[in-house]
Structures are given as C-alpha cells and as structure tokens.
Amino acid sequence: MDRDEVDRALARLGAEHEAVETSLLALQDHAGRRLLEGAALSGVTKERWAAADAAISRLWTYFDAYSGALAAAREIRERRRWPTREELAELTERLRGPGVVIAGAGVEGAGLAERFSLAELVARMNELYAGSLDVVVAADAVWSALPARIDLLGAELHRTRALAHSVGVRPGEHPSGDDLEEITAELAALRAEVIADPLHFWVAVAGSSAPGGGRPDTRRYDRAARALDDVRREVEAVLTVRQDAEARLIALRDVLSRADRTLAEARTARIEVLAKIAASEVPAVSGPPTALQEQLAAAAEYRRRSQWHRLSPLLDALEDRAEEELRRARESLTAVTAPLAVRAELRGRLDAYKAKAARHGMAQDPLLVERYDTARRMLWSAPCDLRAAEQAVVRYQRATAETLVPRQQPLPDHHRPQGPGEEDA
C-alpha cells in the first residue's frame, strides 16, 4: 500500500470504529437489554439471552482489540509525514493482514485464540451485534406491547366481574361466571409467561431487514379479549332483562290471557257448531297451557329474588312459546268456526240470488219460491246439514238462471247498452 492508500484505509477504519462504538453504546443503554439483565427469564428467552449476553461480552472484547490495532496503526502513520518503505510494509500488514489476535475468545470448539484482519473483525462484530440486537429488540417489543394490554384487559375484566356479580352471574351459577374465572386465570398465566419468556411470544417475519424482524404474538390475548367481550354482552343482556323485566312479564301475561280467551271462545263456538251444524267434523279444543302459567310464575319469582341470570333465558323462551300459543289458539278458533262461516256464505248467496230474481220481477215464480223456501229452511234450521243446504242453494241458483234466460230478449245493436246489464250486476 502506498501512503494515500494507507490514509484512505485508516480513514475508513476510523469511521467504522466510530460507528461500531456508537452502536455498542446504544445497545448497552437499550431499555430491552437492561430489562433482560434484571429479569427472571425462562424458556426460549433464557436460552437466547444467555447466548446474546455472551455475544455482547465478546463484542466489547473484539472492539477493544480493534481499537488497539487501529491505534497502533495510527501511531506508526503519525511518526513522519512521508513514511518509509518499511513503515508502509508494516502498515499494510496491520491494515490488511490477520494481525489481530484475540486470546481466549474461541467458542463452541474453536481455538482458544482467534486471528482476524481489521475488515474481518468489523464483519464479525457486525454479525454478533445484529444477532444480539435481534434478541433485545424482540424482547423489548413484546414487553412493550403485551403486558400493558393485558393490564388494561385485566382492569376491564375486574369491572365486568363486579357488574356480573351484581346481577347474579357468578361461578357455579351461570356459564358466564365460569367463563370469567377462566379468563382471569388465563390473563394471570399469560402475563407471567410474557414477563418470563417474551421471545416465546415473538413471531419472526421472513425477509424483514428491521432489527428483530417480526411482531408480538397476540393470539392468546386476542382469544381472552374476545371471550371477555362475549361475557360482557351476556352481562349487558342480563342488565337489560333487569331493566325491562316488569314490562316483559306484563306483556307475557297479556299474550297468555289473550290465548286463554281465544281458546275459551273456541270452546264456546265448538258447542254452538255442534248444536247448529249437522254432519260436520269439528276439531277438539285443547285446554289452557298450564305449563306456561307455571313457568310464568317461576319467572315472576326469579324477578322477586333478583335472579336476573335465570330470568333472562326463561323470558326469551316464554316469549317465543307465548306467541306460539296465541297463534295456535287463533288457528283453533278459525278451524272450529269454519262450518258457521260456510253457513253464513250460503245464506248470503241465497239472498243475493233472491234479490236478483226480484229485480227481474220473478220473485213470486212458484218454482223459485219452492226452492228458496227449501234452501232457507235448511239454512235457518238447527242442526243444519251443510251438504244438503249447499245442494239446495245450488238448485235455487240454477232455477233462477233458467227462469231469467227467456225473459232477457236481445236488443238491436244500436239499443244495446255500452256497459254490463242489470242482470250482470
């Protein structure tokens, strides 16, 4: 190397020395490293920190050797402005050759002494620094992210548990109470594991060039947070039940009362149908839903005792069953009164055709009078045979149509009305 090459090499190595020193001091002062030094570690973190801590110690040993070699080279260069050939040869050997010997630095089966050139020593220090920084940054990232979030979730858990106890959601009495105990135990265990073994909760990201190269693993925390959200919604539902219980119980009593009245009306109608309609199958009408009344009484007792967690599911089930009971009662009434509806329809049809015959002056036609009286007698007698009465109405209807046809003479085209005739009304 000539003088200029030596000066350039010394400048480059000096800049690298400064950069390495700055990095080592920053690593030494890193909050994550201080936490790792003082923590009771376990698992993956204990193993990796032991290796990283040893690597940091070797880093300082390498750096001291690097500093000494660089200082010695600078001392030779500063002896005179124009170094001699011998001095240039010595500087070339010091700056490029494997002249840095580090005693006692061998690891894992290597020799007890290592020889490096200054460039190799810089590369080695960079390698050890990157590995050590990865451990420190990853542990610090997990400690910065998870314990604080766990503590916030724990505070929310405490508030939810207090609220749950106030409405009777307790372990052994309500599933959500058991869930709260499981979440509490999970958060305590998770926090202890995160503090002792943060690297267990670190997910490496392939291809990342950033120190640490990954992100905290929050899956267990996320599961606990979702479970707490589910419990909170359940507790809020129970609170809603406490606020709305009286109104919902009143509404339930009203629905069941309407169902009872409808069934009573159906039973009365059935008696009337059996008395007034002959040859008709009338469905039986069930009695009042005693089981629902008993459950309604149990719901009222839960409310009186403030057992909201028991009242909540019972009210939901009762509301569905009460609406179903009212629908069933209405269908029963409709089925029972169907024959009366048929009789009413036949009566209306008979009177409509009589009115039609009267409009055409045929009300006193002997055949029509006879068939009308026959049909009317069947429809207004008790019990009424619906099948026979319907046939009588059909016969009167046909007789009316046949009687009216000869009376309706066709008009000339210029006298025909534009709309339908009266007989079509």
Tell me about this structure.
- By secondary structure, the protein is mainly α.
- Helices cover 73% and strands 4% of the residues.
- The chain is built from eleven helices and six strands.
- Helix 1 packs antiparallel against helix 3 and helix 5 runs parallel beside helix 7.
- The radius of gyration is 50 Å and the shape is rod-shaped.
- The relative contact order is 0.06.
- The C terminus is likely disordered.
Question: What brief labels describe this structure?
Answer:
425 residues, mainly alpha, two-stranded antiparallel ribbon, 6 strands, rod-shaped, disordered C terminus
Shape: rod-shaped
- Alpha-beta classification: mainly alpha
What is the beta-strand fraction? under 5%
The helical percent reads over 70%
Order of strands, widest sheet: 1-2
Topology (SSEs and partners):
Layout: H1 3-28, H2 31-38, H3 43-77, H4 85-96, E1 100-103, E2 113-116, H5 118-166, H6 175-196, E3 202-204, E4 214-216, H7 219-276, E5 277-278, H8 290-304, H9 308-359, H10 366-379, E6 384-385, H11 386-404
Parallel strand pairs: 5-6
Antiparallel strand pairs: 1-2, 3-4
